[in-house]
Amino acid sequence: MISLERQILYILMRKPEIEVSELIDIYNGRRYSPQSIRNALSRLKRLGYIRHDRRRYSLTPAGTNVLTSFQFKLAQKVRTWNGTWHLVMYQIPESHRSCRNTLRQELIHLGYGQLYHSVFLSPHDQTQSVRQILEEQGLSEFVSMFTGHFTFGEIHSRVHEIWDLKHIRGLYREFLAWGSEKRKQISRRPSIPPWDAFFEILELGERLGNILLQDPILPTEFQPKDWPGPEAWRLYRELYHHLIQHVESEKGILQLPHK
Questions:
Q1: Which residues, in sequence order, are bridge partners of residue 113?
Q2: Same domain as 221, residue 197
Q3: Could you tell me which residues are beta bridge partners of residue 90?
Q4: Which domain covers residue 219, as residue numbers?
């Protein structure tokens, strides 16, 4: 189940400003108490993801980034790879261990794989995203980035070593099983209340989004045979387009961005 905090962030993407009373009305009968909603807002504000002005809450740039961090990866699905690799190399002192760990995790979420101990590579140019992370973590002086072609060292044979594609394949299979069951449930419901459909879409996007944080979106030539990613995307789009019709029946609820 998608966390209450993330649900609220998504609602704020649809409704740029909202009061606590509006959120309480939305969650009326949805197992979250008014106090739990206030607590979630406090946590989001403390993390710097939302701001509070004149009793109304809105997203900060950091909050928006939390929800759109994998949008760049989605764009890679339709691009033809030009054969260029992008490397991130670092030598970060132990005194910055926490920031180093954060950088490593963020690189993985962006789709980078670990080539050597402190060398990560990606087939996609994500220089801007990496530089933003480096500036936020204060690590720019310890990191170098390189773009080019390998003249020695075959990458194809190391793909399964660099990226855990077996695990990611399993995640896609789990999503397909869940989505197939969800499709059956939806087909039995000729009418879905708009906010119910909205939260169904949030869960749908969250489930696939969690896989995207691990899937490097490799070019076709590096993907294993019978890779389940395209099938998962087809099922996602089918469920999304069915649910969004019910959301759009409610005036003021806008279409979600994760198509």
A1: 121
A2: yes
A3: 143
A4: 164-247
Q: Which of 108, 140, 160 is the last residue of a domain?
A: 160
- Give the phi and the psi of residue 56 in degrees, each rounded to 5: -115, 140
14: tokens are: 């649809």
140 lies in the same domain as 176: no
Kindly give the pairing relationship between strand 85-90 and strand 143-148.
antiparallel
Domain boundary among 160, 186, 201: 160
Alpha-helical regions (H) of the chain: 4-14, 20-26, 34-46, 61-68, 71-76, 97-110, 127-137, 159-162, 165-187, 194-212, 229-247
pLDDT, tens digit, 9 for 90 and up, residues 234-256: 999 999 999 988 887 555 444 44
- pTM, to two decimals: 0.75
Per residue in 145-204, pLDDT tens? Answer: 999 999 888 888 899 999 999 999 999 999 999 999 999 999 888 888 888 898 898 889
The Cα 10–Cα 28 span in angstroms is: 17
Total domains in the fold of the chain: 3
The answer to whether the CB of 59 falls within 8 A of the CB of 16 is: yes
In a domain, 20, yes or no: yes
User: How far is the C-alpha of 104 from the C-alpha of 100, rounded, in Å?
Assistant: 6
Quick one: which of 14, 138, 131 has its CA closest to 67?
14
